[in-house]
Amino acid sequence: MTERMDPATCAEVERNGLWTLVRLEEFRRPTRPAAEAVRKGLLGLWDRLRGSSKAAEEAVAEKDLCVLPEDLLKDVLPGDHHREVAAELKRLQGAVSNGGAAAVNGFAVLRAPGDGIASGIRAMAEEEGWSVPPALKAEEILAGGEAFLESLLRNVDVPLAIPEFESFYLRHHLGFGFLRRLLEILVVTGRRCIVGCNSWAWAFLSRSVGVDRILKTVYTLEAFDGERLQRWFGQAAAGAFQRGFSFRQADSGRYVLRTAPENGPGSGCGDSEQEGEKRDVPVDVSDFLRHVAAYSRGLPGVAVAIWRFSLRFAYEAEVEEKAQKAAAVDRGATIWVKPWPRVTLPSLPAGRQVPLHLILHALLLHGRLEGRTLQRILPLSGTDIMAGLATLVGCGVVEAVPDGSWQVSALGYPAVDDALRGEGYLAGAF
Amino acid sequence: MSPNPEIADAFRELSHVKLLPIILIAVAAWAAIKIADRLFPWVAERLPARFRLHVLPVVTIVRLMIFALAMVLIVPLIIEPSFQNLVAILAAAGLAIGFAFKDYMSGIIGGLLVVYERPYRVGDWVEIDGDYGEVKSVSARSVRLLTPDDTMVHIPHTRMWQSAIRNHNDGKRDLQCTADFYLDSDHDGSLMRQRLHDVALTSPYVNLDHPIIVVTSENPWGTRHRIRAYPIDAREQFLFISDLTARGRRSISEAGGRPIRVPWPPGSENEVRGLSGTGT
């Protein structure tokens, strides 16, 4: 099937740029192609009934293609985009008005793993001279953080930017007092603010302290569908394209990514069609990135993690003959992309795993947590928590953060989201 | 007493009865029922928890269908399948069974009604005559409850005629749990209620789709605070109650509350029931 970007979508992306913030209710998760939905549904059911992981299959699949070297990955993967997000935030903060009586004079932006919104909020605050309060330690939150709250009452004319709102509470019976006082101060003083909060914490705080009734205006990044990913990854890989690399699917040899419009022909964004017509060659871009967009729920941080995971390097003999033939026209080396059905992403152990689910839910509700804090907020023993974390790290769904805490990995986020929703836990917006 | 000739005629001659197919059908039916008993709970455990209580009750219906099918296949092999013969056999059997197996038949009829009326289903948490537990299976004659102390209780369906059946979740995952705290009245009631509300709110087992309510009542001996909340999964009710109790006591202590440490007045309206603390 030949995939071309819808001209209307292309035009919109061209006009608005990639980093568009939309109202939460306008967020539309990319849809999964019907055939893929059926395939994934049946495979998922089969895996559940078998109760086995895909580790063995993964080991076999990994043999044939090697991961890309780090220096090449740097050329290929998107870099930091906090400037673009900051620009979008600046545009919005001028446009958003007060949420009304008993509401905070500002708005919230919901975050997802690896989306760079927290960095964008910091960058915007730095450019605009806004105050960014430091994150509190668990002990300070439990003690009520009075000194911190008093400091907020000074300089109320300076707007406030809170990039990680979820770090201002703990799911502990003493862990809400500080947040309640903070919201009260923001309402009473009318201080302008921008709040970044991960979507899971937002869902929980909306139910528990009614934060959505106090911070009424909520935005999030517009979902990255296949076309947006094509454009974003294409722009990012401009350096690689210039060095003569091509991105092709390892089984069929079809293009997965082509150059961005400003960097050359065949982007898959309108002009590729013209280019194809000029050369009388059909533009054939695989629907790999549509699958990535759907699986990642349109979250750019998750999509880029999957993209990174899928890129492979191989000697010609290790790639299927059909793909080799297609790649013969490439002017340089080829970066192979695993066919979507063979991309085996992290998954949780099959069956009901209550301790693992409790740990994962706590990590998502708080963004990241230290092992000691997990012990304080979960009714599990230290041994259970450490064993659970070890299992989850082994599955690839949890990773250690350099500051010594733990978080759900962007690559494992869809699997964790599916598992927790399936078990009935309160889940985030995406 | 000589046998009724009509009934005797209804049966095939022994030499014409094909014993092997009858045995094969009976064995196949027994095996199919055993497979269904294991297969559906096995599948239910592997599916997302929200589907569990939709899958488990299917076992009872499948068992009944297998039993009915086996009967339909076996009966014509034993009797001549005419209307008169069936009437004669059923009348005689009904009379004999009515006297000899009255209670047993009552149980089986109760079992059929259980499938239709559904006072309990596999996966439900029920209380029948003081026995509380999860329904593990519903057979033709009885229901099996697994109690919290890991004891399997077989209760004949005949109890359904005389006893109240308290179904705590009625086919849903939702099951209300309570945790009681008995305090000396010398404390700030509002503060304590807020604290206990936060205790429930911060339990990782709590289902936030349902409201959390703290009920407070004043008594001559002190104040009772009761948390009413729902766990995410009914199977976690005891972990949930334990978590609420342990953290609730700690929170009360930190807020300056003092638990009452005197024996209950006998016959008090607030006397703790045997099931206090489980789903209510």
Can you give a write-up of this model?
The complex is a heterodimer of chains A (430) and B (280). Chain A is an alpha/beta fold and 430 residues long. Chain A has helices at residues 7-16, 34-50, 55-64, 70-76, 82-95, 117-128, 138-143, 146-152, 177-189, 199-209, 211-214, 226-236, 238-242, 271-279, 288-295, 300-310, 321-327, 354-366, 371-377, 382-395, 413-423; strands at residues 21-23, 66-67, 106-111, 160-162, 193-198, 218-221, 246-249, 255-257, 311-313, 334-337, 369-370, 398-400, 405-408. In chain A, helix 5 crosses helix 6, helix 12 crosses helix 15 and helix 15 crosses helix 16. The longest helix of chain A is centred in the first third of the chain and has 17 residues, at 34-50. Chain B is elongated. Chain B is of the alpha+beta class and 280 residues long. Classes of the chains: A alpha/beta (430), B alpha+beta (280). The A-B interface holds A 48-49, 51, 171-176, 204, 207-208, 350-352, 354, 358, 361-362, 377-379, 422-426 and B 43, 45-50, 173, 195, 198-199, 201-205, 207-209, 232-233, 236, 239, 242-243, 246-247, 250-251, 254.
